[in-house]
Amino acid sequence: MTATEIEYDDIEVITLSDAEVREAIDNALAEAGCTWEELQRQAADGRFESHIAREAWFVVATLDPATA
């Protein structure tokens, strides 16, 4: 192994189904107590209503609920 190679044998990759992605989004939004649109507005304003909403943004920001 060279200095630039890293061994990743201990990493397990789990692929979620569309239904599981939708469930993750729904759970994060429920925990945050807001809708996707409300969460997007909070992110755009740079002011989240709670730390849970901010964490939910980081969970779902890269996921598009419309496609899940």
Defining key terms:
3 helices, 51% helix, mainly alpha, extended, 68 residues
Largest sheet: none
For the secondary structure, the number of strands is: 0
Number of helices: 3
* Mean pLDDT over all positions: 86
Oligomer: single chain
Q: Identify low-pLDDT runs.
A: none
Percentage of helical residues? 40-55%
Alpha-beta content class: mainly alpha
Rg over CA atoms, rounded to whole Å, is 16 Å
Strand content: under 5%
Shape verdict: extended
One letter per element, helices H and strands E, the order comes to: HHH
First-last Cα distance: 40 Å
Summarize the structure in words:
α1 runs antiparallel to α3 and α2 packs across α3 (51-60). The protein has 68 residues and is mainly α. The N and C termini lie far apart (40 Å). The chain has helices spanning 18-32, 36-45, 51-60.
Task: Set down the secondary structure blueprint.
Layout (H helix, E strand, L loop, with lengths): L17 H15 L3 H10 L5 H10 L8
Q: What's the gist of this structure?
A:
The protein has 68 residues and is mostly helical. It has 3 helices and no strands.
